Amino acid sequence: MTGVNLAGVTKRFGDVQVIHGVDLVVEDGEFCVFVGPSGCGKSTLLRMIAGLEKTTAGHIAIGDRDVTDADPADRGVAMVFQTYALYPHMTVAENMGFGLKMTGHSKAEVAAKVAEASRILKLDDYLTRKPKALSGGQRQRVAIGRAIVRGPEVFLFDEPLSNLDAELRVEMRGEIARLHREIGATMIYVTHDQVEAMTLADKIVVLRKGVIEQVGAPLELYNNPDNRFVAGFIGSPAMNFVGGTVARAGVVTAPGFGVDVATDAALPGAGASVVLGLRPQHVQICAGNTHRVEMTEALGGVTYIHLTTATHEKLVVEVHDTPTAKLGTTVGIKIDATHALVFEDSTRGLRLR
Ligand SMILES: Nc1ncnc2c1ncn2[C@@H]1O[C@H](COP(=O)(O)OP(=O)(O)OP(=O)(O)O)[C@@H](O)[C@H]1O
After folding, report:
1. Which of 10, 12, 17, 18 is the best mutation target for the ligand 1 pocket, counting ligand atoms within 8 Å of the beta carbon and taking the most?
2. What is the superkingdom listed in this entry's lineage (predicted)?
3. Nearest CA to ligand 1 atom 29
């Protein structure tokens, strides 16, 4: 078993605490993705698992070994970074085999491991080239190959595709998914990219300010967020939020939507403030003059129309047919209230179910 287990993991840089007692189980063979806003501690947590940052308190186990204080080289992990850091004077094959060669493996053993990694990553045609004669995507494949050659129990990826252009990212995303299927190792992956997180992950971990907000399968987080933060973070464009007031049992008045919303969420008493969340695909434009068109983003197959409500809240509407809403005009909206989620009007913003 080579899952990863974090128990009460804490990190302090001097007086500043950046990771606050994280508990997390990554199962053997699972693809786990860390997401969260810039500075929330994704990379720090990954580097702690790698052993590149000391753990201030708590425990990290890989399989059944406690590695909290182990050297990076003794943890059975290999890390792939955003920058490929290949040796410029070595060929692709030498770059991939270098780590094993340094740890005293025989020539034949190194050659066999490099050949296997090259086959998996389709690098056979490039083995004698130097890095400067490779594209960005090919260089990142070599960096991944270097990790594979080491035969780690756990792969750690720190935003490995963020230096690549959009087309290459899509291709490499597919490569990484295939790599995971083929070798079945435990993988932990840090990204800013919603699509990478949603498509690669078995399990997404949403972090905020060094705390886990929610852990779950991609669609579970999308459909069933525990709080307003996760609801707003997972999904692009983000969920719309408007203020509401509990009218009576099962009904919330939401001036930003222009209608009362019936809900089976456990509401506080009449008069209490709540926040309603609704995704852009559950709002439609119709005739009316309650919402002002602030911006339209026509992407071809889909258009996002940005509105302001009479209550000065912002709403994004997803439109699939030719949009008729003109900039600066006012329109009406219709909502599909069955999809509305209700959150506490508080800093935690817990979902009311
Ligand atoms: N060596 C360090 N000394 C002091 N503070 C640090 C150090 N490394 C990271 N931090 C702080 O720890 C917090 C978490 O940083 P980290 O790089 O893990 O965030 P992140 O979620 O990976 O961000 P990004 O998505 O921008 O890469 C940040 O506030 C950062 O400033």
Report:
1. 18
2. Bacteria
3. 39
Cα of 44 vs centre of ligand 1, distance in Å, is 6
**Residue having the nearest C-alpha atom to atom 23 of ligand 1:** 39
Tell me the residue range of the domain where 310 lies. Answer: 237-352
pTM exceeding the 0.90 threshold for the entire prediction: yes
- Three-state DSSP class for 277? strand
Q: How far is the CA of 37 from the centre of ligand 1 (A)?
A: 11
Tell me the two tokens of residue 75.
């943890």
Tens of pLDDT, residues 233-286: 999 999 999 999 999 999 999 999 999 999 999 999 999 999 999 999 999 999
Q: What is the Å distance from ligand 1's center to 4 Cα?
A: 22
Look at residues 232, 247, 265 and tell me which one is the last residue of a structural domain: 232
Tally the C-alpha atoms within 13 A of residue 148's C-alpha that lie toward its C-beta: 26
Measure the CA–CA gap between 341 and 353, rounded to whole angstroms. Answer: 8
Same domain? 307 vs 208: no
- What CA–CA distance (Å, rounded) separates 138 from 275? 47
Angle formed by the axes of helices 92-102 and 107-121, nearest 10°: 130
* Ligand 1 binding pocket, CB closer than 6 Å: 13, 16, 18, 36, 38-44, 192
